[in-house]
């Protein structure tokens, strides 16, 4: 691991340990074993370090590579697998290479969200990702309607909204309650939602 990445990860570890983003340069210096000059060789100031943390653990984390989602089988299987992939993308997060102990990734998100979402780039990525998920699900629902596997009497827009609300509820449950049964909650809620939208 290069020195710049090490500074970013050690600073993230400090943020998690102190449960605050208010970290001093002297604390970063102690955690990394570098001099102040060694830190400033890689970053112009403390806010520059925080920007790098936001980039790696918020901006890069939020983006979804939809091409990685394998879609096979029935409409139910495709929608299920797509939502499951997106959920696990968020649960698994970005690997924190330099920190050996097991870290609950939702702690990272909760600490960075308040400041992170104030950043224009993060806001833009969040908005675009939400639109991309909506478009992706719209295509799957439309395909399901063509196959007569999804109800025709509900609008595609309403079905997509139902799927998104269900998904966001599960993601919120994981984020706030650190629930170890996220997969089980997802399966139960997806089954209930599918029963409502499938062809009767």
Your description of this structure?
The protein is mainly alpha-helical and 200 residues long. Helices cover 72% and strands 0% of the residues. The protein contains nine helices and no strands. The protein has helices spanning 3-18, 25-32, 36-42, 46-62, 75-92, 105-116, 120-146, 156-177, 182-197. 20% of the residues are buried. The model has no long low-confidence stretch (mean pLDDT 84).
Distance between the termini: 55 Å
* Overall mean pLDDT: 84
Number of helices: 9
Identify the overall geometry.
elongated
Low-confidence stretches: none
> Into which percentage range does the β-strand content fall?
under 5%
In N-to-C order, the SSE pattern is HHHHHHHHH
Radius of gyration: 20 Å
Structural class designation: mainly alpha
**Biggest sheet layout:** none
Number of strands: 0
Share of residues in helices:
over 70%
Task: Give a concise summary.
The protein is 72% helix and 0% strand. It has helices at residues 3-18, 25-32, 36-42, 46-62, 75-92, 105-116, 120-146, 156-177, 182-197.
């Amino acid at each position: 691991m290069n020195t710049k990445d090490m500074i970013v990860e050690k600073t993230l570890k400090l943020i998690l340990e102190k449960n605050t983003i208010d970290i001093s340069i002297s604390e970063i210096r102690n955690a990394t074993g570098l001099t102040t000059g060694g830190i400033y060789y890689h970053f112009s100031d403390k806010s520059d370090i925080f920007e790098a943390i936001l980039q790696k653990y918020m901006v890069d984390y939020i983006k979804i590579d939809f091409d990685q989602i394998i879609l096979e089988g029935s409409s139910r299987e495709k929608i299920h697998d797509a939502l499951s992939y997106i959920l696990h993308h968020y649960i698994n997060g970005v690997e924190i290479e330099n920190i050996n102990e097991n870290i609950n990734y939702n702690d990272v998100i909760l600490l960075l969200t308040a400041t992170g979402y104030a950043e224009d780039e993060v806001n833009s990525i969040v908005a675009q990702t939400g639109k991309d998920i909506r478009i992706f699900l719209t295509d799957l629902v439309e395909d399901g309607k063509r196959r007569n596997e999804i109800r025709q009497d509900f609008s595609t827009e309403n079905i997509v909204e139902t799927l998104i609300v269900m998904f966001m509820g599960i993601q919120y449950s994981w984020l706030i309650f650190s629930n170890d049964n996220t997969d089980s909650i997802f399966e139960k809620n997806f089954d209930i939602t599918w029963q409502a939208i499938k062809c009767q």
